Amino acid sequence: MRDVREALMVARDSDGKLVRRPLSPHVQVYRWPLSMALSITHRVTGVGLGIGTLLMTAWLLTAATSEAGFERFQYFLGSAVGLFLLFCWTLALVFHLMTGLRHLWMDTGHGYDEKQYHNSGIAVLAGTAALTVLIWVAGLMIW
Amino acid sequence: MPDTRATPHIDMLRSPLGRARGLGSARAGSKHWWAQRLTSIALVPLTLWFIWSMLRLAGASQADVADWLSSPVRLALLLALIAATFHHLQLGLQVVIEDYVPQEGVKLAAVLAVKGLCVLLALVCAMSALALGLNT
Q1: Cα distance between residue B97 and residue A15, in whole Å
Q2: Which residue of A10, B40, B53, B58 is surrounded by the most CB atoms within 10 Å?
Q3: Confidence (pLDDT) at A113
Q4: A104 interface with B at CB cutoff 8 Å
């Protein structure tokens, strides 16, 4: 059976002739403004953070079940691979937090002016870099 | 089957009402949207607290973690973080799957699998936190 939505694709033009409705151009056609890149990265980091919850689960689970297992997991997190994963996780978390705050602000109806729209994107990038560096400097000093 | 791209023609007779049925809002969209916003607002302070706590626990032993979680306030905050995180996660992943998976069967299976997995992970995290915090 054909998709019934196909019925919506055929229409008449102003002369009454049957035409196929045009589709809007796909994403590759457009020049990417900053907000477009931030929006898709927000989504990508969201999925990444979902995978990252496995780290938190493993950390809590090993801490609750076995002292030796927790020591091994902490050792893994302190290794080069572990630190790299934690750094990506921090970066994704801070970025998602910053773009999330921007989206919440825009949900209240603010920031749609072209200049504000661009500047708040720059602020997100600057905030992400600053907070991530701050967290890692503090973390490495404590560790 | 005739190609409607080459010569546009009507081979499906649908009334305007019939065309619109099933394509519009199921009137449940705002609930999903609102839940995503509520959990995100809750996660702003909870995430900052979590990052702060993880920094203090860098390189901690199991005893340190148990000691940290022996405070009922911290345990409550961690449980709130776990609930908000996994609820927010399954709402977000559902939208991603719905946007990119066109086949209805695969879409439904993927959404259900993600939701089930999120509930299980949340329970594992919560039970681990409770076991750690209530033991001492």
Answers
A1: 41
A2: B40
A3: 92
A4: yes
B41: contact with A, CB 8 A cutoff: yes
Which residue type, as a one-letter code, is found at position A87? F
Q: Three-state SS string across B62-92, please?
A: HHHHHHHHCCHHHHHHHHHHHHHHHHHHHHH
Contact between residue A22 and residue A107 where contact means Cβ atoms under 8 Å apart: no
Chain-chain contact of A139 with B127 (C-beta, under 8 angstroms): no
| Count of pairs with CB atoms under 8 A, one residue in A, one in B | 102
Question: pTM, whole model, 2 decimals?
Answer: 0.85
Sequence-distant (6+) residues with CB within 8 A of A11 are A18, A19, A21
User: Count of H helices and E strands in chain B?
Assistant: 5, 0
Q: Report pLDDT digits (tens) over B22-67.
A: 666 667 778 999 999 999 999 999 999 999 999 999 999 999 999 9
Partner B contacted by A23 (CB < 8 A): no
ipTM computed for the complex: 0.84
The tens digit of pLDDT for each residue in B56-99 reads 999 999 999 999 999 999 999 999 999 999 999 999 999 999 99
CB A70 within 8 A of CB A62: yes
